[in-house]
Amino acid sequence: MNTTRNASRGLAAFGLALLPLAVHAQAATGDDDTRVDLNPLVVTATLAPRTADETLAAVTLLDEATLRRQDPTSVTDLFRGQPGVDVNTNGSFGKQSSVFIRGVDNEGSLLMIDGIRLRSATAGGAAWQFLDPRMFERAEIVRGPRGSLYGADAVGGVVQLFTHQAEEGGPHPRVAVGGGNFDSRRLSAGFSGSEGGTRYSFAGSHFATDGAPIRRGGEDKGFDNTSALARLSHTFDGGAEVGVLALRARGNTEIDNGDTDFVQQVAGVYGELPVTENWRSRLTLSESRDEQESQLSFGDSTFDTRQRTARWENTLGFGPHEVILGAEFSRDDVTTTADYAEESRDNTAVFAQGLLDFHPITLQASLRHDDNEAFGDELTGNLALGYALDDRHTLRGSIGTAFRAPTFNDLYYPYEESTFFGTTYVFEGNQELEAETSTSYELGVRGQYRPLYWDLAVFQTDIDDLIDWASDSPAPSVVRYRPTNVNEARIRGAELAAGAELGDWTLQAALTYLDPEDRDTGNDLPRRATRSLRLDLDRELGDWSLGGSWIVQNHRYDDVANEERLGGFGLLNLRAGWAFAPHWSARLTVDNALDKEYETARDYINAGRAAFLSVHFGAL
Length: 620
What we know:
Elements: H1 2-28, E1 41-42, E2 50-51, E3 58-62, H2 64-70, H3 75-79, E4 85-89, E5 97-101, E6 109-113, E7 116-117, E8 136-143, H4 147-150, E9 157-163, E10 172-180, E11 184-195, E12 198-213, E13 220-235, E14 241-255, E15 258-276, E16 279-296, E17 299-318, E18 321-336, E19 344-358, E20 361-372, E21 376-388, E22 393-404, H5 408-412, E23 416-420, E24 423-427, E25 436-448, E26 452-475, E27 478-502, E28 505-518, E29 531-541, E30 544-553, E31 556-557, E32 565-566, E33 569-581, E34 584-591, E35 610-617
């Protein structure tokens, strides 16, 4: 289609434009000034602080400045079109959302909040739509398998959201209030600070909207969400540290034939001890909850899941090298209106990682063994090799394995019949399922300069024993859905990410090419766009700031047979900010400024033009 061709031409032009910029950056930057502005510290890729080029992984950081500029109403607005990332939604404003990383579906894209895993044990994936972006300070997206560090479901990659950290001194208050069309309104407030060795951060936010139709000709579907955050920690004179975290979101979203009350919650307590000068030990006890109670025209349902985890990590330093050893125990519990054969399961794991620096060669190796009560033993590993071509360019290659655990729905969903228009539909789980397993390969190169960076990666993921809720017809007018390990998938692709800070201008760009193939049929895996381009451009003008994002994606298919084609689309999001007084600012965002109607799931449309104006005091 024309949109795809234009995106490809735009990429070519952008790539050529980068060449003189890179030459200029190399000529103008001394050795001591490299890896400064656009080479941030991240922790998700390796469990330890590393700059982006040192992780030997494809990683994207959405920092506090980015979140403030874009001021999104949903965390998925931040992720759409990022390198290797795709988003599917059943409408806007709190409607079901899925995040795909490198073509791997929502169940294989792991979400963590401050190191605590959050997902539904019944559905498998995370309920991204219920998380308020006002509660978070930054996001890290790691693309590629991380099963050897985090266990099940980190097949395509990991997204970690970080809540607001304490500031020095204080307390520092912050307040924001705003509203927009669709009768949307939001109020946020919080304060943070530190005194002695004690750090604290507290925040609350409420967002409500009458919403927009999610189907053509339908009624508006509303959404409200109230969130609260509390963090408290203390560091003792000897270097020991203890802390607690609690984050809770609660609200209601209107859907087809009814509405859903939801709770999303993470809570944890940790203690960290410097055993010796080169050995730190950390123990974390945590709990996460995904609770959804739906009131529907054909009956009510409850799906409440809870995961409790104890994780012990030990980091040992040996000069430029680090070794991380750990163990983890977790338990899933399910409470539902459905009659599952099993309502809990345990998982025990041990893991080890070596981060070895033999400059200019860097080696990273990790291994993890999981013993799960429901599906047995799984061994995952990752091996990455990096070579510093010079002070600004790093070549990397890696191979990694991962697995996706069968969900409680996959294994235990009880036999259920529903009849519509003379056809009986039957649903039931399959306790004979094996976990999906995958092997991924990646080759990448990164250029890092003071005013700009670029990162190019090619990759392939082979998935075996793909879990598929296939249908058959055991009798006339009967359709049965039952999951089986039948499909194999091969996902190939390439990503180009780049960014620059030139004077008052900030530019971020991402291009993704994807070939997600069902090896049994040769068809594309459903709901994946195969071409994606995102450009973010912002300019500071004294007390003013102006910016915009352009996101272009080509068509996708909604079904495995590739008969239901969803058209591609282009979105233009605009934003402006004005610091009109000390500590005071106003922001205006206009999402989908061209009022495009688009869908990423069949028959579900997203909202049109959405404008939002807010006034802020402090950092919010």
